[in-house]
Design brief:
Elements lengths: L4 E7 L5 H8 L6 E7 L4 E3 L4 E3 L2 H8 L4 E2 L6 H9 L4 E5 L7 H5 L5 E5 L7 E2 L2 H7 L4 E8 L9 E8 L6 H25 L14 E2 L15 H10 L6 E5 L2 E11 L10 E5 L2 E5 L4 E9 L5 E2 H5 L19 E2 L2
Parallel strand pairs: 1-2, 1-6, 2-5, 6-7, 8-11
Antiparallel strand pairs: 3-4, 7-9, 9-10, 11-18, 12-13, 13-16, 14-15, 15-16, 16-17
Helix pairs in contact: 1-6, 5-6, 5-7
Length: 326
């Protein structure tokens, strides 16, 4: 690429930080972040103090102009035009872009979506893929269009989902996966030879914004489905159960193939790795537990200060559907 290639970045979540670090570090000889658009400062944390998000903090530290509109207007499109960006890169921004805004950079606007499209379009692709028991996912680089995650895809960087990976673990992997994806596609885009393939809408699946109630568990489900839900919803919104009248948060689980004759939800033992609970099929092993106000602990450490005998029954609740109808 001849001369500095200017990028406008639109994002509001820390998942984009490895990508930004690469652009500002290894790519700084040829690349420049001309402007950053991110969500306004919001209350966050236990104290609900208003503070900048990770993207604003990153840009401010480097003296990069930051814009935080409540919604994008013609004024923001003018800011983008004045930045003379060759390309707008979007990841986890949180605003809908107008056609005019999308088309303002010389080479248009591209989005990093945290799934292998057309599967898991929507608001919670990482959590939902893990919670649905997928064994792999990825980051798709696509053109931004005015339909939900429906633009043509240039390339995908895939990552495996291990049986003990939580959504938090996979988010970290996907954040890193953005770097090689951009590194190999950006030169092709600059040369005008990067090709895009239309998605097959008939294969599309959709996920929604998650809520606290999604963390309720029905132990009549298979152990594999329960473990996937627990791991997929950690750290947010988190799965919980009742033990000895207390709400206990579940941080990690896996499934054992052996089934128990006990009623689903019954504690049937423990091993060095966790607490064993009967399920509709197989046995669920709870590996990390947390009581209210405490820390998330390996189960053996948790149980050293919490009485939990065999035969204890964990109550079941209806489990919500995470995938949406079309």
């Amino acid at each position: 690429m001849a001369g500095k290639f200017k990028i406008a970045f639109l994002g509001s979540d820390a998942i984009a930080l490895p990508l930004l670090d690469w652009i500002a570090g290894e790519g700084r000889g040829a690349l420049e972040i001309a402007a950053v658009f991110t969500q306004p400062d919001r209350p966050a944390g236990r104290g609900q103090r208003v503070r900048p998000n990770a993207i604003k903090a990153w840009a401010t530290e480097r003296g990069i102009p930051v814009h935080q509109p409540e919604k994008l207007s013609e004024s923001e499109r003018g800011i983008l035009a004045n930045a003379a960006a060759d390309l707008a890169l979007v990841m986890a921004y949180g605003h809908i872009l107008s056609e005019a805004f999308i088309a303002t950079p010389r080479l248009g606007s591209l989005n990093f979506h945290a799934s292998v499209l057309p599967r898991y379009r929507g608001a919670s692709p990482i959590q939902t893929a893990v919670a649905c028991g997928e064994t792999a996912t990825g980051v798709s680089l696509m053109r931004v269009v005015r339909r939900l995650d429906a633009g043509p895809v240039a390339d995908v960087e895939r990552v495996p989902i291990g049986p003990l990976d939580t959504a938090g673990d996979i988010e970290t992997k996907l954040a890193q996966a953005c770097v090689p994806l951009l590194a190999r596609t950006l030169p092709l885009l600059a040369q005008g030879v990067l090709s895009f393939l239309s998605q097959d809408d008939a294969q599309a699946t959709y996920c929604r914004r998650l809520e606290k109630k999604d963390g309720l568990l029905n132990f009549g489900a298979s152990a594999a489905a329960l473990a996937a839900r627990i791991n997929g919803l950690f750290p947010w919104p988190g799965c919980t159960t009742e033990m000895d009248g207390q709400t206990i948060r579940l941080g990690l689980a896996d499934a054992l193939p052996q089934s128990s004759a006990a009623e689903p939800g019954t504690v049937v033992g423990r091993d060095p790795e966790g607490l064993l609970v009967a399920a509709g099929e197989g046995t669920l092993r709870l590996r990390r537990l947390q009581r209210a106000g405490g820390r998330m602990l390996p189960t053996a450490e948790f149980l050293s200060g919490f009485s939990m005998g065999d035969g204890t029954r964990l109550p079941s609740q209806p489990m919500t559907e995470l995938l949406l109808a079309r």
